[in-house]
Amino acid sequence: MDAYAIKKCINPACGLTYEINNDIYRCSCGSLLDIKYNKKPSRDLVETFYQRRNHGGNIYNESGVWRFRDLINFAGIDTENFEECARVLVSLDGSEGRLSKPYNMSKAADYAEMNHDSFLLQPEGYNPSGSFKDNGMSTAVTHAKMLGVKRIICASTGNTSASAAMYAANENMECDVYIPKGEIAPGKLGQAFQFGAQVIQVQGNFDDALAASLKNAKETGGYTVNSVNPFRLEGQKTIVYRVLEHLNWNPPDWIVYPGGALGNTSSCGKCLIELYEWGWIKKIPRMAIVNAEGANTFYELYNGLFEGKRLTWNDGRPDLAMVDRYYEHLDKKGIRPKTHATAIQIGKPANIVKALRALDFTNGIVVQVSDKEMSDGMSIVGLNGFDCEMASGAVPAGVRKLRREGLIKRDDVVVGILTGRQKDPGLAVEYHTNPNNMFAKPPTSH
Ligand SMILES: *Cc1c(COP(=O)(O)O)cnc(C)c1O
Ligand SMILES: [Zn+2]
């Protein structure tokens, strides 16, 4: 195989490299790995990406992921030829990333106290399995296919398993999903079953399920598709490409994501670092990450609320001993992540170090919001005719908070990523049944 890309340790003091024809995702030093490309892509590709939108039936141009394939080209596909793409690239009939782009949502802008035309939300829920996870799953499963893998494995708060199971079904692979019993939205659990995955219910939370699935992958040779897999993060970069394309490649002032395992945070950071190094962008948007109050590890560590010292990237030498002490403190005190936004109910974010690098590069910030605030955020998105789940509601809620704290200005250009569709419709019914909620429209009787 021609080496279009390698894997490289993210720890600058180590920097070991690995070939990509294996499923190693962690360096021997313990750090995670990045995908590094051997060629610097030409800025002229901007025109190619635009032209591919007129796809003429080629699903690899229709796909909002593979349309940008030249920037995630670990598979070495340099062609417009459909058959050659189809031999390697995994797509659900061109549907991943196809409908997601930034939209103006005037009511959400009012709620977030932003100008109508400078506040945009990008609904990644309109992916085939209903969340942004499809962006990264199409690339991770492509890599699995390159290796001839028969069985993929993941732990999930619900959307990863839905996406993995969907692609596995379509590619004729087996799929094992480890889920925290009773802690995932019913719509997500239903998808795993419906797409034919083997569901393994874990007594415990997501952090326990991830540990169990990584152990099983190691013991049985299954291929892990969680966001520790660097090929996942490559596909998720296309979320940012679609934002930038919509803005004619003029970066916004802010990009806002909810924070769970921090895969998106890491992916966005890597994406911006690359574009900057390639000279594609001159301005670096600031990233704002929104934690749930009930699962706020990143918020506490990044803002120095534990041991009075901020956890930072520190030129590639973050204080990992402090992270260990924080996790010990959670375990000792019996503090479990607790929020109704189950997609971000994560206490030990696996990508925390890559996320620190992302915030360092973008002068980023981390804010936290309550379940009530996330419900309001979710509901105001609904009133614009878009649905999203509670974890995604963290985005408008977080922007509103940052506006009130004066960190975001009313006319800043802000793009928020709505990570997933509503798969827990009971939450919407509950919200609107209670007249005390900010946007409730309770049912009437007849
Ligand atoms: C997975 C997920 C998240 C968390 O994303 P990370 O990359 O793990 O931080 C947030 N929202 C939704 C809807 C998700 O499915
Ligand atoms: Zn290393």
UniProtKB/TrEMBL annotation:
Molecular functions (GO terms): L-serine ammonia-lyase activity; threonine deaminase activity; threonine synthase activity
Residue intervals of the Tryptophan synthase beta chain-like PALP domain: 113-420
CDD domains xref list: Thr-synth_1
Required co-factors: pyridoxal 5'-phosphate
EC number in record: 4.2.3.1
Pfam families: PALP
Any one biological process term the GO annotation gives: isoleucine biosynthetic process
Family matches, as InterPro entries: Ser/Thr_Dehydratase, TrpB-like_PALP, TrpB-like_PALP_sf
First-level EC class: lyase
This protein's name: Threonine synthase
Species per Swiss-Prot/TrEMBL record: Nitrososphaera gargensis (strain Ga9.2)
Gene this chain is encoded by: thrC1
